[in-house]
Write a structure and sequence with these properties.
14% strand; Cytidine Deaminase, domain 2; single chain
Length: 240
């Protein structure tokens, strides 16, 4: 019994020092296993989370891979109860939510870097093909972000009527479409470009400006409307 108490006191002393270090430094100088160890403090009450963190990162290869690992794989590790697994799986979603929430009140269409950051954050935890619609007011402020489709997406499903319905509901006069390519390639397809041109022309007739259609890859974001090909098409067809 005395040995058990000493072990618990040792773990608690170590945990206290790690928490104190985080309070002073933040995570800047933490290694991946130390970040995971700290996170596990709040789900695994009495165990050596340092050893557990090392084992999990050795298994999956990195902290990000641990946080994105399937639930059933995480549950194979000792002490990984349902609350512990949920905490880890929550982290990527929370990071994306935080970043989107922080940016949404300052993101304007006049600043592509802000828009790209917002869209990257929005798609960060998404692993399947998804189409999102960002609705904005006349001052380019985000009013609402809607998920239009999820799963295998056919571009013909995205209609001007669908976008207009959402825009009018929220009083938006500007819209940005965004969809991802889960394979990592952000180059727009011919279908992407044709759909964008059709939507831009149709929405222009009812007073809604489709300002951009973004294709989100694993590493970057490609704007279709700002592409040289799209600009040439719009000029030739007198689309503003």
């Amino acid at each position: 019994m005395e040995t058990k108490k000493k072990s618990e006191n040792l773990h608690e002393g170590h945990r206290g020092r790690v928490r104190e270090r985080f309070a002073k430094e933040g995570l800047e100088h933490f290694e991946g296993h130390q970040v995971l160890e700290l996170l596990l403090f709040y789900a695994v009450k009495r165990a050596d989370t340092n050893e557990l963190a090392h084992r999990m990162i050795d298994e999956f290869g990195s902290l990000s891979a641990v946080l994105e690992a399937p639930v059933e794989e995480l549950a194979k590790f000792p002490y990984m109860t349902e609350p512990a697994v949920t905490l880890l799986r929550l982290m990527p979603e929370l990071a994306a939510y935080y970043r989107s929430d922080k940016l949404k009140n300052i993101c304007t269409l006049g600043n592509y870097n802000e828009l790209f950051s917002y869209v990257r954050a929005m798609f960060m935890p998404i692993r399947q093909e998804t189409v999102m619609l960002i609705l904005m007011d006349a001052g380019s402020r985000i009013l609402k972000t809607e998920k239009l489709f999820e799963g295998t997406v056919n571009m013909t499903q995205i209609t001007a009527r669908l976008i207009a319905t959402h825009a009018l509901r929220h009083g938006a006069v500007m819209a940005v479409l965004a969809h991802n390519h889960p394979d990592g390639n952000s180059l727009p397809s011919k279908e992407d470009i044709d759909t964008t041109l059709h939507l831009k022309r149709a929405l222009e007739g009812i007073g809604i400006n489709l300002t951009e259609h973004l294709v989100v890859g694993r590493e970057d974001v490609t704007p279709i409307i700002q592409s040289s090909l799209m600009k040439e098409l719009c000029t030739s067809l007198n689309v503003k």
